[in-house]
Structures are given as C-alpha cells and as structure tokens.
Amino acid sequence: MIEVKNLTKKFDDKIVLDDVSVIFEQGKTNLIIGQSGSGKTVLLKSIVGLHSVDQGEIWYGNRQYNALNFKQKKEIRKEIGMLFQGAALFDSSTVEENVMLPLDMFTDLNFSDKLDRVNFCLERVNLTNVNSLYPSELSGGMKKRVAIARAIALNPKFLFCDEPNSGLDPQTGIVIDNLIKNITEEFNITTIVNTHDMNSVMEIGDKVVFIYEGKKIWEGSNNEILSTDCKELNDFVFATNLAKKLRT
Amino acid sequence: MKFLEHAGQYFVLLSKVFAKPEKYILYYRQTIREVEKLGINSFGIVVIISIFVGAVITIQTNYNLENPLLPRYLVGVTVRDSLLLEFSSTMVALILAGKVGSSIASEIGTMRVSEQIDALEIMGVNAASYLILPKIVAAMFFFPILSLLSMFVGIFGGYLTCLLTDILSPSDYIYGIQYIFYPHYIGYSVTKVVFYSFIIVTMSAYQGYYAQGGALEVGRSSTKAVVYSSILVLLANLILTKLILS
Prior knowledge:
Helix content of chain B: over 70%
Distance between the termini of chain B: 34 Å
Structural class of chain A: alpha/beta
Distance between the termini of chain A: 38 Å
Largest sheet of chain A: 6 strands, mixed
Largest interface: A-B, 24 and 15 residues
Largest sheet of chain B: none
Number of domains of chain B: 1
CATH topology of the largest domain in chain A: Rossmann fold
Number of helices of chain B: 9
Radius of gyration of chain B: 21 Å
Helix content of chain A: 25-40%
Order of helices and strands of chain A: EEEHEEHEHHHEHEHEEHH
Oligomer: heterodimer
Structural class of chain B: mainly alpha
Mean pLDDT of chain A: 90
Strand order of the largest sheet of chain A: 6-7-8-3-9-10
CATH superfamily of the largest domain in chain A: P-loop containing nucleotide triphosphate hydrolases
Mean pLDDT of chain B: 93
Strand content of chain A: 15-25%
C-alpha cells in the first residue's frame, strides 16, 4: 500500500499539487486521471521520488519515503518498477540487456539464471525471440511490453505506469492495460497508473483518483465514475462526442 | 550568480560520479565499451589531422627558415617540438572536444529528455556514476594514447613531405627530429592530455546530464559542451604549461 498525505508541490511560485491525500491499495490497479497539465505526472514522479515535495508525506507501507536518507530510499527503489510514457528503454542495449540490467546491478545470480529470469519476464508480456533486437527495431507496443518486462524483473512490490497507452492504437492499448492488471493481481503488487485514456479507466480501474488543477476532487471505482455528479469529472469523462452520444 | 550556480551543480554531479560503484564488473564492462566508442573510434580523425598538420608545419617552417646561415635540420627540430609541445596535446584535445564532447553531451542529453536517466534512478542505480565514470576512465586512459599516436603520425607526415617534395632532404629531417631531444616533452604532453580528458568528459557530461526539454535543447547542450570544453582546455593549457615548464 502507498499512502500520500497532504502533498503539496510548487514549481517556483506555481502550486502544481495542492494538499493531495490518497491511499493506493495493494493488489489493485489504482488510476490517476485528469486533463493534461492537471498535475498527474508530477504526482506520480513525486511519489517515486523523482521530484522533491514541498509539504506532505509519502508512505510505502510503514516507511515514510520522503523522510528517508539517500541510501534508505535506494533500498525502496529496488522494490519499484516503472513504465515510462516513452518506454525509456536504453537505445544502445538490446532487449535482453535492457531487461537484464536490474538483475546485473542488484543480484548475484549467474548468467544462466539471469537469462532464465529475462526470458520468463519477456514471456510474461508475450514476447519471444526478441532478445537480440534493439529498441529501434521494435514497435511502440513491443517497447512498452519490454519496459514492463524490465519493470517486473526484480519482482517489484510497487509498479508505476506513466501513460502506458500513449501513442498506441486502442487495441494495443487494451493489451497493455490487461497486462498491467494481470501482473498486478498475479504478483499482488500496488500499481499506480497515470492516464487520461477512458478505455483504460473502464477496463482496469479498480480505484480511480481524479486530479483537477492540482487538487484531488474525486475518487471511486470505474463503475461509480459514470454516475458521479462531479461536474469537472463529467466534463472530462464525457468530453468526446461519442461519449456524449452514449450518455444520452 | 549563474556561474556560481553552474559551478556548484558541476561539483555536485562530480560527487555523484565518484560515489562507490554498485557493481565493479558492470563498470568495467562499460569502460571497455567507452574505450571503443570514445577512443578507438577517434583513431581515424586523429591520424588524418596529424599527418596533414605535420606536413603543413614542415612546409611552413621550411619557408620561414630560408636563411642560408640556419642549418636545414632545424626544420625537423621545429616540427618535432611543435607537435610534442602543443599540437599533439592541446590541438588534439580541441579536436576531441569537438568530436567526443558533442557525442557525450548529445548521448546523455538524449537519455535525460527521453527519461532513460529517470529509469536508471528509479531502479536504484546511481545514473551519474554508471553513465559518466566509465567515460572518464576510458578517456583518461585512451586520450594519451591518441596523443602519442598523433606525435608519431605528425612527424611521419613531415617525413613524407620531405620524401615527396624537394623542400628538404629526408636525412636532414631525420637528423633534426633527433637533435637535442628532451624525452620529458612527451611526459609533459601526456600529463596535459590526462587533465584535458577529464575536462572534456566531465564538462560535456554535465551539459548533457542537466539538459531539459527536447531535441533543440539537446543540440544546444551539445554546442555548449564543445564551447566550454574548448575554453577550459585552453585555460588548463596555460596553467599547466606555467606549472610544468617553468
């Protein structure tokens, strides 16, 4: 479980996150949704420690992450897997080297065991025979799957995904969404997904948090989202003509 | 104020770079890769430039030493000393600042803007150390070799000029390059290159590491890396020459 208490983040004088408090539950796919520029990515990056916070607390289980020193934070980071918006695979390394890097860095396994683990992770995301390919030789969806494989290589307790569907067609997006949900349930990890894709919300949103202008103004399940009376959320959910027609 | 901010940020980066590596074997492997990328891949440009510069210095020196009272072998002496004292260290460093410096800044800058550095940090890897330390070690080890190569090739370029033209007899040239030879000139040159290597790699890595935005900013960081590395190399040249030769 990850708990955020009264989180505030400013860039110069601009308040980007304003007193956000939320609990992300273990074994569930927790979604942060909101318009572009609402503060979703800043919230996600603050939780993983890529941004420092101005006020508030971030708890990983019973450990207050933002009160730990560098060395202690590093230990928690080994329990974190993250899927970045652009996949963030290392261009000069093959798929195998990309997935193996965390194993090389933080385990004492021999090469054969590491290779087994790499192949297991790649098979788990439905990729085979891609070990020797470079990221430039992969499609967008394959890159995302390799990034998921890398994120789960060290058996993380926490998985963060920043806009996993961006740049993907709806069908591939659903494949990635289901992969994230299945992995979350299979390994009982706390997953936080940052998205503005309503397909993802309806497909995998066990818990949904809506951020509007830096504030959390709604949270609930994906079923509750369609019947909410929160105006800002309704404007966001039913923004497209298709959604408006379906609603009427 | 801006200068102090950058200086502070540069030294903070260096403190991260020289933190204890997570796994030495990975750093060793990275260093070998960097030797190939930064060093061996620069062989060609160093050889081509050195051979031409050696040839041109020979022609120019010969042109300026037409006084019959001056012995002809002085051309060889001048070519040797020009190459050993300045060209093969400082000029080669400036060439490498252009080639290697821009490559390092754009590589690390691209990794920064495409979140690859964030991905390393999230894994718990000290990204600054993992990406930059092997480059520093590789450059400090291999750039002196390139400098020595430049000396030999430059002198050979002068010899070829003598051989292919009639401006100077090859025997006078050979006599000149051996005349009153101070071996410590090579040590002086190599010492300077070791310092230059550190400056080029760390300054270029710094520009890339703190790049923000997109392709345009990566391009800017690459340009800044070349400009600042070159200026610092020239400044270091002045200081080291004063310290070592006086």
